[in-house]
């Protein structure tokens, strides 16, 4: 085979060289002369997985220039040169010194060159060639993703596709049968089969039942070399599960059940549960329960608990052991999701019988009625019988019953009940007008078991008796038009009675014990109403505006009651065209009923008051006009008047006259009072003083008392409080008094003419003393 490849390579090489010569124009003149050939080699092949002791021979490189004298040297470079592949430099033989693996690298690209050994010149140009690694069957098929899981519905037909499996082989699929795989089943027969070429797994048996067996472990083998002897193989496991379909009906574990239920079970509450089994799963096992017989369905109901798939039995009506001691229920369980493919398997439902045994329980007493309505007349005395309630023990023991009233802790006990008989009586007199209906609750308990209590509502109606007199509601005065004529209807009146109107109609009349009314009369309309009529005409509001009309009204009860009501009738000019009498709007003063003379007098008084007010304001304004203290606008400072005059000292009592603050009438009285003060001081001053120059206590005390009396009696004083201080020397001073006030004038040789030379201060002081001395001279 090597020689065949060499010949082919030579032929291809000669054709390529001829084409190149034509293109370049270097073709030999003799077109039939064969050109000179250079390299002689072909594409080399080497077997993988060589395990011999010697290096594997690959091929030979040879140049036409090689005469066999050893002058040509062969060189090798490229992939694996020197490490994997070696070349004999003299002969050009190539060997592989390592075992190769095609699955790792399928070919190698190398470069060959022939040079002159002595001159190192290239005898042939460098050329590229390929060494291909030839495949051998050294890799078994593999399942990279195994093991696998698959599912198929139970009861599937034969040949139903389950899963497709695929193996891989690393060997060369283009060379031989090293990578040609055939599938077979090693485990899983006779339930499943596999297609040898495609690896599709299919069911091999019909009616595989999940409830019988759910999981299957199938081992699939893949073998190369088309399954022939000597081929390599690999296997994997496919776990196949059967999915559920609704192919099983529900089944009750028993055909008969028994359940105990006490008669005290509450209506609407669960009393028991029942369950049917279904071998299917999920929605295929869902079912509903129902009670098939009418008697059981009338007393009980059943609902489905979807989570637990149970039938919950509840009580529809109260149980009574004394009436019926047992019930039988035909309960049916039916699948809700049916598959028509498996309808031939039969009805997907099951039936069982449940017997309910009713247990006797000590029950509370039962009243003969669910509620009671009784009545009693109002004003009936305490102890009046209202009615009777009856309760009895429903149990076979027939225990005695005691009665009581459930009293409202905030309300009054209006009724009482006999504990043995259940007779209800009143505890006080009732008034229908206050409360017409009373609601009470009666309790009944067994004597043997007081904890068992039952309740019943009792409604007591208070019947009416004629105990309230009728009366006429008169919220406002009735209108009498000034133009009313004799016999004209002024107003129609009706009566009101707190008692029930069933006491009869009302009768109206004027009081018989009073003289006949000259202005109005009354007509009974005999329909529980009466009309007020005008007896005369010519009513005038000016003459008399209001009239009083007493009216007596009787009811039709037993006994007959009556009352007298006084009607107020108001006379006024009425509006024209109004359906009902309406007073015409009037001025305020006219409505007050004042005459023309009274109005004129009022106006004159108002005018006189206005004139007095104007005069008073004018006088006040003139009096308030005074010369301003500040002439110029520039002199606006404080309200203080300053001057340069010096004061007269302690004796200058006339510098400011407080009488200016008083009214003129009291000025003279004030001056007289001052003269009196001077006389008192003069009298005191003329007396001999003690060596200590102190006044006697009794003298100064008298002066102070006198001042206090004057101050208390002074009604013309200033409009503010004033402080008057009176001081005197204390007694026992050895140095004597240092004050010069009110002392006798000492003897002095001072010439008065010399005072003028002592300055203005002394001159003013001198004048003050002189004036005081003149005042003291009588």
TrEMBL record:
Region annotation Disordered: where it falls in the sequence: 728-757
Record GO terms (molecular function): beta-catenin binding; cadherin binding; calcium ion binding
CDD domains hit by this protein: Cadherin_repeat
Signal peptide: none
An individual GO BP term: cell-cell junction assembly
InterPro entries: Cadherin (IPR039808), Cadherin-like_dom (IPR002126), Cadherin-like_sf (IPR015919), Cadherin_CS (IPR020894), Cadherin_Y-type_LIR (IPR000233), Catenin-bd_sf (IPR027397)
PANTHER family xrefs: CADHERIN-18 (PTHR24027:SF106), CADHERIN-23 (PTHR24027)
Protein name: Cadherin 18
Organism: Cyprinus carpio (Common carp)
């Amino acid at each position: 085979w090597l020689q065949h490849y060499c010949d082919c390579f030579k032929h291809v090489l000669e054709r390529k060289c001829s084409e190149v010569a034509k293109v370049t124009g270097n073709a030999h003149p003799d077109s039939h002369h064969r050109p000179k050939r250079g390299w002689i080699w072909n594409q080399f092949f080497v077997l993988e997985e060589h395990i011999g002791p010697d290096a594997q021979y690959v091929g030979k490189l040879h140049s036409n220039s090689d005469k066999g004298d050893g002058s040509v040297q062969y060189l090798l470079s490229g992939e694996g040169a020197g490490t994997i592949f070696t070349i004999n430099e003299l002969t050009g033989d190539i060997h592989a010194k390592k075992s190769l693996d095609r699955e790792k690298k399928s070919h190698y690209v190398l470069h060959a060159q022939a040079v002159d050994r002595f001159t190192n010149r290239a005898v042939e140009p460098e050329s590229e060639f390929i060494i291909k690694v030839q495949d051998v069957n050294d890799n078994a098929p593999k399942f990279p993703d195994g093991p696998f899981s698959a599912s198929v519905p139970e009861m599937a037909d034969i040949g139903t596709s389950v899963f497709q499996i695929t193996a891989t082989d690393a060997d060369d699929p283009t060379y031989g049968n090293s990578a040609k795989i055939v599938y077979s089943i090693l485990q899983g027969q006779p339930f499943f089969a596999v297609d040898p070429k495609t690896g599709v797994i299919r069911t091999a048996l019909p009616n595989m039942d999940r409830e019988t067996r759910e999981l299957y472990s199938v081992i699939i083998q893949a073998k190369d070399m088309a399954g022939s002897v000597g081929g390599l193989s690999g296997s994997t496991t496919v776990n196949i599960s059967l999915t559920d379909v609704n192919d099983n009906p529900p089944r009750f574990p028993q055909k008969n059940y028994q359940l105990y239920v006490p008669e005290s079970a509450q209506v609407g509450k669960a009393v028991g549960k029942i369950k049917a089994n279904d071998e299917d799963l999920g929605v295929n096992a869902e079912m509903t329960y129902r009670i098939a017989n009418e008697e059981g369905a009338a007393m009980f109901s059943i609902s489905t608990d979807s989570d637990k798939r149970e039938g919950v039995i509840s009580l529809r009506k109260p149980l009574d052991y004394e009436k019926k001691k047992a019930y039988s229920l035909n309960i049916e369980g039916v699948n809700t999701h049916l598959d028509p493919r498996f309808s031939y398997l039969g009805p997907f439902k099951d039936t069982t019988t449940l017997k309910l045994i009713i247990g006797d329980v000590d029950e509370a007493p039962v009243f003969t009625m669910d509620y009671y309505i009784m009545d009693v007349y109002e004003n009936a005395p305490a102890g009046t019988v209202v009615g009777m309630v009856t309760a009895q023990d429903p149990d076979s023991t027939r225990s005695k019953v005691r009665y009581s009233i459930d009293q409202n802790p905030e309300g009054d006990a209006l009724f009482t009940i006999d504990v043995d008989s259940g007779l209800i009586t009143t505890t006080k007199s009732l008034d229908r007008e206050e409360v017409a209906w009373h609601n009470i609750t009666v309790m009944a308990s067994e004597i043997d078991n007081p904890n068992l209590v039952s309740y019943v509502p009792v409604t007591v109606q208070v019947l009416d008796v004629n105990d309230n007199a009728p009366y006429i509601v008169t919220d406002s005065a009735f209108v009498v038009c000034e133009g009313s004529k004799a016999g004209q209807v002024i107003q129609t009146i009706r009566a009101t009675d707190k008692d029930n109107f069933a006491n009869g109609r009302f009768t109206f009349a004027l009081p018989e014990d009073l003289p006949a009314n000259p202005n109005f009369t009354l007509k009974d309309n005999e329909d529980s109403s009466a009309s007020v009529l005008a007896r005369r005409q010519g009513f005038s509001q000016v003459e008399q505006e209001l009239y009083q009309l007493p009216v007596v009204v009787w009811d039709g009860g037993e006994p007959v009651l009556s009352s007298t009501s006084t009607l107020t009738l108001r006379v006024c000019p009425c509006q024209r065209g109004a359906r009902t009498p309406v007073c015409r709007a009037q001025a305020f003063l006219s409505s007050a009923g004042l005459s023309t003379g009274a109005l004129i007098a009022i106006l004159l008084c108002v005018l006189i008051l206005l004139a007095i007010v104007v005069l008073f304001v004018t006088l006040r304004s003139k009096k308030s006009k005074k010369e301003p203290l500040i002439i110029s606008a520039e002199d606006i400072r404080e309200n203080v008047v300053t001057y340069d005059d010096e004061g007269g000292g302690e004796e200058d009592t006339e510098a400011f006259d407080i009488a200016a603050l008083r009214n003129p009438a009291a000025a003279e009285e004030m001056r007289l009072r001052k003269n009196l003060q001077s006389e008192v001081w003069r009298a005191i001053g003329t007396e001999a003083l003690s060596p200590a120059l102190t006044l006697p206590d009794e003298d100064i005390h008298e002066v102070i008392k006198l001042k206090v009396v004057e101050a208390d009696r002074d009604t013309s004083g200033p409009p503010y409080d004033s402080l008057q201080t009176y001081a005197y020397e204390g007694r026992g001073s050895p140095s004597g008094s240092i004050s010069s006030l009110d002392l006798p004038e000492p003897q002095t040789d001072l010439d008065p003419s010399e005072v003028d030379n002592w300055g203005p201060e002394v001159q003013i002081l001198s004048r003050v003393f002189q004036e005081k001395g003149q005042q003291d001279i009588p």
